[in-house]
Queue: 2 jobs
Job 1
Amino acid sequence: MRTVLFALAFYAAAVVFVAGLGYRIVVYIKTPAPLKIPTMPAPLTHAGVTMRMLREVVFFQSLFRANKWIWLFGWTFHAALAVVILRHLRYFLQPVPGVVVFVQPFGILAGFAMVGGLLALWARRIVVPRIRYISAPSDHLMLALLVAIGLSGLGMTFIAHTDVVAVKAFFLGLMVFDWQPLPADPLLLVHLGLVATLMIIFPFSKLLHAPGLFFSPTRNQADDSRERRYVGAERFEAVSRRT
Amino acid sequence: MSATSGTFNPLEHLKGDPLEIPNLACGAMAASKPYVAAPAHQKALGFPGELIDNWQEKAVSRLGELLDNSRALRVYLDSCVKCGACTDKCHYFLGTSDPKNMPVARQDLLRKVYRRYFTWGGKYLPWLVGAADLTKEVLDEWYSYFHQCSQCRRCSVYCPYGIDTAEISMAARDIMDTVGLGQKYSNEIIGKVFTVGNNLGLPSKALKATLKGLEEEIEEETGLPVRLPLDEEGADILLVTPSADFFASPHMEGLIGYAKVFHESGVRWTLSSHASEAANFAIFVGSQENMRKVSLRIREAAEALKVKRLVFGECGHAWRVAYSFLNTLAGPFDFLDQNYPIPQHICEFTYDLIQRGQLRFDKAKNDSFRLTFHDSCNVARASRMGDTPGGQFEIPRAILRAACNHFFDMAADTIHENTLCCGGGGGLLTDELMDVRVKGAQPRMRAFEQVVEDHGVTHMAAICAICKTQFSKIMPKYGFDMESIVSVHQMVSNAIILTGSIQDKGYDAARISALQEA
C-alpha cells in the first residue's frame, strides 16, 4: 500500500514536473521578443552573451552587485543544493558515477549549508521590513517546504537511519516499472512526500526563475542592434524603399 | 528620515548618503498621479477617449495579448522570487519612502493581476500567492504608481534574472491606454509629433526663424557664417535632435555646439522639418505601434532629403529608440552610407574628430566650470556609443575632458550603469508630478552635493533633454543655480576654436606672444 502510494505519487510528480516545465519552456520559446532590450553594457557577441549567462547562473553576478547578504545566503543555498542533488544521484544510478562518489563526503556539509542558507534567507524575509513587505504567504511556505526537505534528509543521517539500499532498490525499480518495497521510516516518507510536492509545485510557482533566467531578454541578448537588423516579431517587417 | 508628502523640504534632504535606505512610509505617494488624457488626445493615438464600460474585461484580455507578444513580460511576471535585491535600487523609493516604489512592489501591482487571471495558483488559491482581482482600486493604484516609474532600468541591473520594471510599467500603461485611461502629458505630446512634427508643437516657420537667429548669434561670436540648415536636400548628414534644442537653455547652447562641430568638420548637414524631433514618447506609454509610426518619420525624412548619414542629438530615450530599436522599427537603412554607424550619436561624431586631431579647444574658456557628468539612464543602461561596451560612459567624458580643465566624477555607485535617474524621465516631466520629481531627484542631488563639497564642482553636464529640463527645475529647489546644468556640446561650443574665427586669430596671437616671452 505504502509502496504503491509513493510509486504513483512519484510517477505523477515526474509527469507534472517534466510536462509542466516543458510546456512553460515551449511557451517562452514561442513568445516573441519584439525588440532588443539587453541591459547595457552588454556583450557584443553571442559568445559574450554565453559568458554573461554563465556568470549569472554560476556566480549570481547581478545579485552579488545588488546585495552581499542576499547573495551570500542565496548562493550558498543554491550551490549546496547542487551538491546535495549530485550526491542523491547515487540512489538513482547503478553503477554510481565517479563524480557522485567524489562529492559523497561533502554531502552532509552541503546539507547543513543548504538549510543554513535557507534559514538565513527566511530570517531576512521576516526581519528586514522591505522584504517582509513584498512577501506573500507562498514565499514563506516555499522556504518552509525546502527547509523541511533539508531537515528530514539530515534527520536520516543523524537521528533515525533508513535502509538506503532498499530506498535505492525502490527508485531503480520505479524506473523500470518493477516496484520494490519502500522502507516505512517516518522521516523517509516525509522527505519523499515533500520532494514529490516540490516537483509538482515547480512549474506553477516562482521556481520558474530557473528556466526564466535563460529566457530573460535583458540578459540573453547581444548588443549588436546597429550591426544586424534584429527582427524579433513578424509585425516589424522590413520597410521597403520608396525610390 | 520619513518623507510625508506636503512637508518635504528638499534643502533638509540634500546632505547624506545618496543611496541611504529610508524607513517604509506606506501610502506616502498614493495621491501622486498625472492628469488624465482628454478624449481628443486619446483618439489621436487610436485609444478610447475615456474609461470604457467593460474596462476590466478589456484590460485582462489586453494583458493576455501583451503576454503573447512579449517574452520579457511573460518571463518577468513568472520569475520574480521576491529576493529583495531590487528593493533599495529605485530613486523614487529612496526619495519617497513609499514601499510601492520598490521595483518588486511596483511589478507586483501588475503581477498580482497576472497571477489571478493567468496562473493556476492565482485562480484557485489567490490568498496564498498574493493574487488579486483587477478592481477599480487596483486600476487607480496602477495609474498612480506606474506613473512613478521613469523606466530607467536601474533595478534591472541588479536583478538576478534581469527583470526590467520598465517593461512592466510600459505594459501597464499600454493596458491603461487601451481601456481609455491615458496620461495627458505623454499622449498629448505624441499627438503633436504626428500633427506638427515635434513635441513642442513648433511649426517649421518658427523653427526656421529660430535657426536663423542662432546663425546670427554664432556669426556675431565667431565671425564665421556657421550654418544651421533646414530641409536641405542632398546634405551628407540628417541631424535629428530633441525639439528642446530649438527652444530653451541649456539645450540651445548644445545645438550651437553641434553646429560648430559640423562646421569645423566641413561636412554638409541638415535638420528636417518633417522629423524635427528626436524624442519618441510612445516608448513611455509602451505603444510599439505608435513608436514605430514616430520612428518612420525619421526614415521618411532621411529618404526625402537623400542624406547619407543619420546623427542624433543629445537626448536619452531618443538615443535608446535610435540605437536599439530604429533598425528594427524602420530599417533596413540600406540607402545610407554603410561606412558609418547607423545611427550615430553626436557625441560619437565629435569624439571621432577629437581622436583624429581635427578639433582644437581653448580649454581655459571653460575654466569657470568645474564639471561633473550625469549619465542619463537610457544612454547608460539601454544603448551604447563607440565600438566597445561602456563607450557610452567614456565618450561623453572624453569630450568634456578635451574641452574643460576641471572634471570630477560623482560617487562610483551613482554613475555609469549604476547611474541615478534625474527624476523626470519616462513621461513624468510634467508639473502635476512635481512632488515625485523633486523627491526622485534626491539621490542624484546628494551625489552632486558630495562633489560640490569635495571638489568645488559648479556644474553638471548631461546629454538628455529630459535630464536638462528636469534639473533646471529641480536644482534650484535643492539650493543650486538653475544654470548648474549644462549640455555636453555647450562645453564644446564654449571652447572650440573654429578655423578662421575671431577666437582662432586671438588664440594664435596669444600663443605667439607667449612663445616670444619664453
Job 2
Amino acid sequence: MAKSSVTSVSVDEITVSRRSLGRIVIVGNPNSGKSTLFNRLTGLHQQTSNYPGATVEKHVGTATVDKIILELIDLPGIFSLGAHSLEERIAVDVILGRMSGTNTPSGILAVVDMTNLYQGLYLLQQLMGLELPMVVALTMSDAADAKGLRVDINALQAKLGGVIVCPVVGTTGQGVNALRQALAELPGSPPSDLPAFWPELNKAVQQVSVQLKGFTHRVEIERALIDGFSESEQDMLDRFRESDNIRLDEARRQLFGDEPPLATEARYRYKWIREVLDEVQQKTPPIYTWIARVHAWVNRPVPGTIGLFVVMAIVFQAVFAWATPMMDAIDTGSKAFGNFLALQVPEGALASLLSDGVVAGVGSVIVFLPQIVILFLFIILLEDSGYLARAAYLMDRAMRSVGLSGQSIIPMISSFACAVPGIMATRVIPNRRDRIATMLAAPFMTCSARLPIYALLIAAFVPAQSIGWLNLQGLVLFGLYLLGIFAGMLTALLLKVTALRGPNPPFALMLPEFRKPNLRTVLMQLVNRIKVFLRRAGTVIFSVAVIVWALAYYPRSGTVELELAEQQTIAEASLVGSSLSAALRQLEHQASADQLAQSWLGRAGQMIEPVFKPLGWDWRISAAVIAGFPAREVVVAVLGTVYAVGNEADEATLAQRLKSATWPDGSAIFTLPMIFGLLIFYAFCLQCAATLAVIHRETNSWRWPVFAWLYMSTIGYLGAFAVFQLGSV
Amino acid sequence: MTLASLQYGQKGIIRSIDTRDPVVQRLMVLGLVEGAELEYLSSAIGGDPLEFRLFDNAISLRKEQAQHFTISLLSDGG
C-alpha cells in the first residue's frame, strides 16, 4: 500500500539523496514504540552522547538503505509541540533546529501507535505544520488487530495529504523494510501539506509572519500565538521587540477571545481528529476475556497497591538471592588473578600495586556487577512493560503528602539501582522546583554502591538468627532501605516548604497498557548500562584504587623493615614448623600495619581522627571514609587494605579483622552503637562524584550539588554522632 | 454531573469544561475535550487519582481536575 506513493519522488531527487546524508528525527508519543523502532532501524549502529552545552542525551544512529546512509535521531516521547516538560522542550528544540549544534532536520519519521491514533494524530497534525518531508510509521498493528481495531491505511494517507504511512510491528520487524525504503527516499521529497483543520489560525500565522522578522518556522509563530513564551525560551524573547509583542497579543485576542489558547487549539484539533477517525478506523466490539477481567481486578485500588509492594519485594529479593553465586565466582576469580599476578612479578612496589591496588580495588567493585545487572534488568523491565507509570499513579497520593506528585516515583525507583539515571529521569517533571526537590531526594535511595558496606557490616555484626520466619540480617537491610526512603521523603518535604516552596505539582498521566517487554530493546538498554558501569570501574574507580594504594604504600619506612627482619631472624632461630610460619605471617601483618600507620593515608587518617572520634571511629575507618568520597564503592577495598589483610581480603577474614579491632587501651572499636552510626553515615552521606556531576549538569548550577553534598554529609555525620553518643551512654 | 462523580463501569460524554486551570488545559491537549467519551475504570487507594478509559487508552487524573469536566451519562454504560 505504502509503495504506491514512491512514484511521487522524481528520479533526479533520488540521485541527489543517494549522495547526501539525510538527518531524520524520530518523533512520537511516549510508549508509541518509538525506541523499539529506532533500535530495529539502526541495530547496533547507534550511540548516546550529549548535545553540546546541553544536559541532554542524544540518541543517534545510522541506517543504510541501498548505500544511502541516513542519520536517525531518537527524541524523547512527546504529546504535543507545546513544550510542557524539559523532555518536550528538548524535542521541540531539535525538531525546529534551535538546539545548538543541530540544524533543521531533512525529514521526520513520525511514529504513531495504531491503538492510540486519537492522541497520535494530535502530534502528527502539529508536525505537518513544519512543512518538512515526512513518513509515518504506524506501530503496534498487531496489538490493534488483537483489540479489533482496523485502520484503512489508504484513507488515512489521503486524509494526511498523501504522506506515506507504513504499518509496522517493531517487535517482529514486520513492515520495517518498506519503511526503510520510504525513509531512503525521504530527504528531498516534497514537504507535507498543512491539514486544513483551522483556517483562521493559518491566516493569523501568515499575517503575523509578514509583520515579524526573526522567525524561521511557521510553527514557531503558531506556538508563540498559542503558548506565549515561557522563561526557557529567553533567546526567542531576545529576538523580539516590544511592538511585536503587541501585534501577537492582538492576533491572539482575535483568534481566541477570552478562552485559553491551548483549550481552543485542543478543541479544533480533536474535532478534526474525530472526523478522520470516523472515516479511517473501524472497531469491532472487544471480546472480554478472562485476562481482561483479571487485569481490571488487579487495577482496583487495594489489589493494585498490594501488587506494587509485591513487585518491589520480588525485585529486591532477586537482587540478593540471584546475584550471590555470581558474585562469589567473580570474587574468587579476581582474588586468584591477583595472586597469580603477584607471583609473576618480583615482590615490591609493582607487585603490591598490581595485586593490592588494581586487582583488589577494581575487583571489589566488579563483584557488584551481577547485582547491578539484575537491578537494572528489573527496572528496565518495569519501565518497558509500562508498570512504572502505574506505580506513579498508585503512589500519587503518598507523594502529594511531601509536596510532590506521583511522577517523582519513577526517578526514585530508578535510584535504587543508581542515582545517576534516576536524576536524569526527573526530566519528565514539568516544574523546575519539583524537579530539583526530586533530584535531592533521589540520592537517599539505597543505591547498589551502598550494598557492599551494608553487606560487610551486617554479615560481620548482625547475628544470622531468625525472628519468627524473618531473617534478622535481612530485616536490618530492609530497615536501611526504609531509612533511605524516609530521609528522601523528609528532604523533599523540607525543601518544598522552604527553598523550593510552590504549589503542589499536578498529576495527569497516560497509563500504558501492560505490554510484554521486547527482548531486543531490553537487552540493548542493559548492555548500555553495563558499558557505562564498566567504563566507570575502568576509569574513576581504577584511578581511585591506584591513588589510595599509593597513599597507603608510600612513604616506606626503613625502620619498620629493619625491625621486621630482626624479628624474623629471632623467630627463625627459636621456632620450627607450623608455629614458625604462623609467627612469620603474624609478623608480616604487623609490619604492613606499621607501614600503613606511617604512610600518607595513615597520617591523614590520624590527622582527621579527632573529627570522627565523637562517632567512635579510629583513624583507619576515618581514612577509609575519606577515600570513599569520590565513589563510595571503594570503601570496602580501602578497609581491606588498611586492616592489613592485603590479598586475603575476602569478606570473612575482613569481618574477623573488624571484629577484633581495638583501641590502644584494648576496648573494641566496632561496638553496636558505632556500627549503627557507621551504617547511618553511609545511608545518608553523599559519597559519589558522579551524582554530584549529574546534579550539576541537570540543574545547570553548582548551587544544588554543593548544597546536596553539605546537607547529606552533615546529616550523615550528625546521625552517626547521635546514635553513637546515645548508644554509648 | 462531573467526571469526578462517575461510578465504576459508567460511561460519560464531556459536555463542557471549566478551562481556567492550566492542568485542565493540559488534559485537553491529551484529548479530554467536549464530545470525548470516558469510562471510569478505577482509582488509587483513597479514591484519588482516578483512572478512565479514553479511546481505548487509560488516562489518570486527580479528582480536583475531574471536577472541572461537566459530563452527561451515557445510557449503555450502566
